[in-house]
Structures are given as C-alpha cells and as structure tokens.
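User: Could you check the structure of this?
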Amino acid sequence: MKSVSLHCRPQRSGAMLVLLSIAMIIFMVFAAMAIELSRIQLSRTELRTSTDAAAKAAAEALARTQDLDTAIRRGQEIAAVNRVNGQPVLLRPDDFQFGRSIEDPRTGKFAFNDQTRPINSIRVRSARDQQSVSRAIPLLFAKTLGREVFEIRQQATATYLERDIVLVIDRSGSMRGEPFRGLREAIDLFAQTLLHSPVNQRVGLASYSSAATVDLWLTEDTSELTAAMAPLQAAGWTSISAGMSAGQRILAQSGNPDFVERTMIVMTDGHHNRGREPREVAQPLATEGVTIHTITFTPAADVARMREVATLGRGRHYHADDTEQLRKVYHEIALTLSTILTQ
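Assistant: Sure, the predicted structure tokens are below.
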C-alpha cells in the first residue's frame, strides 16, 4: 500500500502542473481580449468626440463666413487636433455634407436634409476603416480575436440657429459690493463675446431680489446689456422664481419656436427664500421648449436646487466660487451658445 501511494504522488503533481498551465493560458487569453475590447471602446469614444468637435467647428465657420470651403477646412483642422488610438483624425472634403435641419415641434427632434436650402447644418462623417484616410486600427492581439484590424464609424450634425437669450440675475442684499461689481464685469464680457458671435442672437435681462423687474426687453444690440446693468443696486431677499417669471415675460416676445432657440440663464449667489419654488416655474418653461442654464456664485449658493432647475430645463449647471470664475462661466456660456449638435 505504501509503494502505491508513493508512486501516485508524482502523477498527481504532474497533472496539477498541466491544469495550472492550461488555466494560465486561458487567463492570458481573456486578459488580452479585455485589453483589446477596452481599447476598441476608448477609440469609439475618441472618434465620437472628434466628430462632434469637427461638426461644431465647421458650423461655426459656415455661420461666420457663409463659405463651404472655409467650413470644411475648419472642420478638418479641429478633427486633426483630436486623436483616435494616438493618431489624428483625417477627413476628406466629401466627409462633410451641407443641408438644413428642421425641428419637428411634436417630437423636438431635428431632421437633416442635404437637398433643402437655405443651409443651416453640417453633417460630418468620420471613420477609422480601410477606406478612410486614417485607415483602420490594427489590433494588438489579432490572433485572440481572429482579426487583424477593427473599424469604427461616427457621424454628427451641427446646426446654426437663431437664439433669444434672457439673463436672470440676482441683486439681493448678499450681492452688495464686490460680488455685484464682479457680476457687472461678467455680464459685460458675456455681451462682448456675443457681439463677435456669428449667430443671430437677441438678448434680454431680468433681475430679482424680493421682487423682480424686466430691465431689458429682447434686443439685437448686446451692448445694451451693459447699460441695463448700470442702474441696478443690490438689496433685499432672494426670490429666484420671481426672476424666472420676469424672464418668461421677456421670452414671450420671442419669435417662432420652430426657428428660434430660446435660452434662459439663471444666476444666484444664495438660497431661494421668497415666493414660489423655482422648480415650479422651470417645468412650464421647459414644456414650452426653453433651455435653462443655471449659475451658482460663491460657496454659499444653493447648488443642489439650481442643478435640479437646470436638469428640468435640459440645460447645464455652472458654479463659480469667485468673481474671476464667474467671468469665465459667462464667457464659456456665450461661446457655446453659437452652435448646437442636433444629431
């Protein structure tokens, strides 16, 4: 019995080594597949980002110059700055389509038609495949997946639209002094940025404390924003909803919503403490198709509530801790209002 037991031990040890070797090979194969699939997913995301950026840049150039060749060159430049799998995205002129996007008022979706005029949209098609300038992406572990390369394709459509923009600002007592001076500078920068925008935009201004006022009805002269800010003084409580309702009255002057994009930008440095709940005002505005962006200023601001208002209004929430950040926020919003991705 002892001799049999001693004789079996080497056999069992050898079998275990074989099993461990097989398990290690299987593990390495799955690890290689995981790495490759992660790289494929990252490349898809990179191409999506590059395509979106190229479409927006081309639409901005088209709106500014009304020249198709200039728009194509600008889109190519921006695409090439972005990289997919470490290589620049190269686009041909025929990767750009020009047409018109029209919003369906029933669904809110935009339909692009390259045979319709006047032109207000550019569709960009990009690819890393065997037919593209950039070519397909070689696989690191080709034998694992049974292929030498993988191919990805994306498209994006950017549209130039007319916009009506209403700024709703906080002039409650907590804004007195340096905060309100910083706000005036930020609004002035916002106006200057829109002045050089290629998009046809009108602006209006409402302000609030315990109550709200309409300080500027919609106008194409963005410099009037600065003049409308001059007499305003900070004092009183904080009724964000009153300010939004005043902004709603301004937007009632807006043009046909099928052709005019309507945006409200609501700013506060504190907490709502008078009047209706702001979210109750945001909901009907959103139903009417108004996009609501919100800005919270200083660490004391009610970030959670204003983020919810922006979500209801299908917009973005921005936060600024100090006046310099506030300037940057208004500048960023002014820049991004020029074009939108519609597909």
